[in-house]
Specification:
This protein is an alpha/beta fold. The chain folds into 2 domains: 6-261 and 464-484, Aldehyde Dehydrogenase, Chain A, domain 1, CATH 3.40.605.10; 265-447, Aldehyde Dehydrogenase, Chain A, domain 2. The protein has helices at residues 6-9, 52-68, 76-92, 94-105, 109-112, 116-132, 165-179, 193-205, 219-227, 240-253, 275-286, 307-319, 339-354, 388-391, 407-415, 430-439, 471-475; strands at residues 18-20, 23-25, 32-36, 43-48, 136-139, 145-152, 155-159, 182-186, 212-214, 233-237, 256-260, 265-269, 297-303, 358-361, 378-381, 398-404, 419-420, 423-426, 446-447, 461-462, 465-466, 479-486. Helix 3 packs antiparallel against helix 6, helix 3 (76-92) packs antiparallel against helix 7 and helix 6 (116-132) packs parallel to helix 7 (165-179). The termini are far apart. The relative contact order is 0.14.
Length: 495
């Protein structure tokens, strides 16, 4: 087990500055944002806090780079060359990214140490799109030449969440840059370190000034960024409450917006599937990101006759979960990332009990751990789908088991939610999995487990968001289609 801290390993020379127009600049205030370790409850770092004046500088730099700089007018393969240097720089900082994620969120080191390739694959996919995506398309014309061109949407505000700060940010940065946009990165105030390292890597890669900028800000300056008249598009990942605010502001000025918000994903366990196997998979999945995963399978729907048996298997699996220091390789569940989030989970546990759900196991902080924001994996049984714990996102290691009366009733319950991000069907019959999955009103459905593909598309129905990230559909929101109707084909244009 290590006692290494961020201060011991990461060069912090730039962390009291902001990255604007290709330079590290001092912010307009001396205010700072504190990074708190969720397992020591101590401050591990401080970074600059941007004010409204700093937001103006960053947005104006991005605007200038878009309106008069070379980036939007370069070919996609030319942009890809710089992105390749960017990806290489990111990979050289793998150790820094790993310790930053664990120190600031408590994610298990076993996960953070192997996470970089997954995160940087977003940049790799964007590089590949430089040659695979038809940025210029020729269309049939009776006379002359009709061309559909896909041009960059403009200045992008990329706002990432605190639970997976690097991967979430790069899923915005990659498509925005290959499209030819310029952008301002705005990480969550609780987890800014990864974005600083990303900015350092961008500086090393040699993007033109103003193409990629970084501000670290809390609510007032962040709100100003979303409202800024020069920001053409906002890509936001975070809570439903904040997403509503972002959507309203963007709607008011008709700005483009992509929202990846919350989830209350359902797992339907059909009668042919082994319950012990399902229980182990579900409990392992609820520990991913220490339960703070928007796509987590938090509602388990099973036939009434099998409910009690599944609950027994789930409880047994949960009681085997080891809780503690995320650097310990024997640990399966680390701390909740913030004290405020821990208190929110505790409030939901009390609400679940008050509304009549049966608390089977967990539901409290581990008595043996006196320091850190730890919480036991928690299981509720005989949950009514109308209860708060079944309808609202808890964002912690909490499972609700809901009895149903057959397959159609299971699908009805699964879809009876304001969210529609993920889902799963546990069955040995692939045809049954397909049949049930097609009736889910949700963005992704996995067969026998929580699954996602950012190479295809990730996002949700209903209040889980607007738009998708990943794949071709994740690139399109950063582009504006323009129709050109010409008298003849331009010379030198190979289409």
């Amino acid at each position: 087990m290590t006692t290494t801290t961020l201060a011991d390993t990461i060069d912090s020379a730039n962390f009291r500055k902001l990255y604007i127009a290709g330079e590290w600049v001092k912010p307009s205030t001396v205010r700072v944002l504190n990074v708190i370790s969720p397992f020591t409850e101590e401050q591990v770092f401080q970074v600059a806090e941007a004010d409204i004046a700093d937001v103006d500088l960053a947005v104006e730099a991005a605007y200038k780079a878009f309106e008069s700089g070379p980036w939007p007018h370069m070919s996609a393969p030319e942009r890809a060359t710089i992105l390749q240097a960017f990806a290489a720089a990111l990979r050289r900082r793998a150790d820094d990214f790993a310790i930053a994620w664990t120190e600031s969120t408590g994610v298990l080191a076993a996960m953070s140490n192997g996470s970089l390739e997954y995160a940087v694959s977003a940049i790799d996919r964007s590089i590949a799109q430089a040659s695979s995506f038809p940025f210029i398309e020729k269309h049939p014309a009776q006379n002359g030449c009709n061309i559909l061109v896909h041009e960059p949407v403009g200045v992008v505000a990329a706002i990432a969440p605190w639970n997976a700060p690097l991967a979430s940010m790069l899923m915005k940065v990659g498509p925005a840059l290959i499209a030819g946009c310029t952008l301002i990165m705005k990480p969550a105030p609780q987890t800014p370190i990864e974005a600083y390292i990303v900015a350092e890597c961008a500086d090393e890669a040699g993007f033109p000034p103003g193409v990629l900028n970084l501000i670290t800000a809390d609510r007032e300056a962040s709100d100003y960024l979303v409202r800024h008249r020069y920001v053409d598009k906002v890509s936001f990942t975070g809570s439903l409450a904040t997403g509503r605010r972002v959507a309203l502001v963007c709607a008011d000025r008709i700005a483009r917006v992509t929202l990846e918000l919350g989830g209350k994903s359902a797992a339907i366990v059909l009668d042919d599937y082994d319950l012990e196997k399902a229980a182990k998979n579900l409990v392992d999945a609820i520990c991913v990101l220490n339960g703070q995963n928007c796509a987590a399978l938090t509602r388990v729907i099973v036939s009434r006759k099998r409910h009690d048996e599944l609950v027994e298997h789930l409880a047994s699996a949960m009681q085997m979960i080891t809780i503690g220091n995320p650097y310990d390789p024997e640990i399966k569940l680390g701390p909740i990332s913030m004290k405020s989030q821990l208190e929110k989970i505790e409030a939901y546990i009390a609400k679940g009990i008050a509304e009549g759900a049966i608390l089977v196991t967990g539901g409290r902080r581990p008595a043996k751990l006196k320091c850190g924001y730890y919480f036991e994996p928690t299981l509720f049984a005989n949950v009514d789908n109308n209860m708060s714990i079944a309808q609202e996102e808890i964002f912690g290691p909490v499972l609700c088991v809901i009895p149903c009366d057959g397959e159609s009733d299971a699908i009805r319950i699964a879809n009876d939610s304001p969210f529609g991000l993920g889902g799963a069907v546990y069955t040995n019959d692939t045809n049954a999995a397909y049949r049930v999955a097609r009736r889910f009103r949700t963005g992704t459905v996995g067969h026998n487990g929580m699954k996602a593909s950012f190479g295809i598309a990730f996002g949700g129905f209903k209040q889980s968001g607007i738009g998708r990230e990943g794949g071709t559909v994740g690139l399109m929101p950063y582009l504006e289609p323009k129709t050109l109707m010409l008298g003849s084909q331009p010379q030198g244009l190979d289409i």
